[in-house]
Amino acid sequence: EVQLVQSGAEVKKPGDSLKISCKTSGYSFSNHWIAWVRHMPGRGLEWMGIIYPGDSDSRYSPSLQGQVTISADKSISTAYLQWGSLQASDTAMYYCARQRSYRLGSLHAYHYDLWGQGTLVTVSS
Amino acid sequence: QSVLTQPPSVSAAPGQKVTISCSGSSSNIGDNYISWYQHVPGIAPKLLIYDTNKRPSGIPDRFSGSKSGTSATLDITGLQSGDESDYYCGTWDHRLSAWVFGGGTKLTVL
To answer: Which helix (H) or strand (E) holds A46?
Structure first.
C-alpha cells in the first residue's frame, strides 16, 4: 500500500528544536519530490518547501527560507522537517505530501496526490 | 495575502450547484495546470482535481475543473452535506519558483 505516515504530535517550548518525520512506503521514494505544507489555526494551507530525495535537492517558500530545514534519508524512505529554534507562531498542523511531476504537452504538470495524516506541533511556554 | 485569490466562502442548498473561483496571474495559473484540494481541518487534504480538469480515481464526476486565462474554477454539482469542507486551488508559480495555494474557500451546504 502506498502511504505517508507522519510522526506524532509534539508539544514544545519557545526556543526548542524539533524534527518531525514522514515515512513513505509502497513507491520509489527517491524518484518523487516530497513537500511540506502547514495549516495554522484559522489560516489556509501554506506550502513550505520540497525535497527530491534522489539527490536531496530542496526548494523553500520565499517567506520561510532559513526558518526550517527539509531533509530526506533514502535508506529509510523518510523525509524530515526541522526547526532550530521554535516560536509560538510555529504552532500548526504540518502535512507531508508526494508531488507528481511530469511533462504534459508543452508544460510541466504538478500536483499532490498523496498526503500524510498530519503532525500537530504546539509551541507554548 | 495569497497569490491565488479565492472567495472566503460559498453556500448552496443540497442538490444545487456551486462554483468556486481561483484567480491568479500569468506566472501561475496562466502558464500552468491547476489542482484542487478538499480539506477538513485536522484531516489530510484530499486531491479532487489535477491537470486542471482531471479527477483521480474515486472522485465522483460531481466535481469538475476548468481554466480560462489566469482564472480557474471548481464546480460541484448535486451538493451533499458531506461536501462541507474547505477547498483550495494550487499551482506552481514560475516567478516565485514555489508552489502556491489559494486562500481557501469554505463551502457550506445550507
So the answer is: strand A45-52
pLDDT tens per residue, range A49-76: 999 999 999 999 998 878 999 999 999 9
Which of A79, A83, A27 is CA-nearest to residue A56?
A79
pLDDT of residue A107: 86
Distance (Å, rounded) from C-alpha A91 to C-alpha A12?
Answer: 9
**Torsions phi, psi for A124 (to 5 deg):** -155, 140
Residue among A44, A107, A117 minimizing CB distance to B44: A117
Q: What is the pLDDT of residues A7-44, one digit of tens each?
A: 999 999 999 999 999 999 999 999 999 999 999 989 99
Report yes or no: B85 at the A interface, CB cutoff 8 Å. Answer: no
Question: What is the β-pairing status of strands A107-115 and A92-104?
Answer: antiparallel
Q: Do A111 and B50 touch (CB under 8 A)?
A: yes
Beta carbons of B37 and A104 less than 8 Å apart: no
pLDDT (mean) for B36-50: 97
Residue B80 φ then ψ, to 5°: -125, 155
CA nearest to B31 within chain A: A107
Question: How confident is the model over B86-110, as a mean pLDDT?
Answer: 96
Q: What amino acid is encoded at B82 in this protein?
A: G
Pick left, alpha or beta for residue B15 (phi over 0 → left; psi -120 to 50 → alpha; otherwise beta).
left
Q: Is the pLDDT of residue B75 over 90?
A: yes
DSSP code, position B4: B
Of the partner residues B96, B97, B104, the one whose CB lies closest to the CB of residue A45 = B104
B98: cell is 514555489
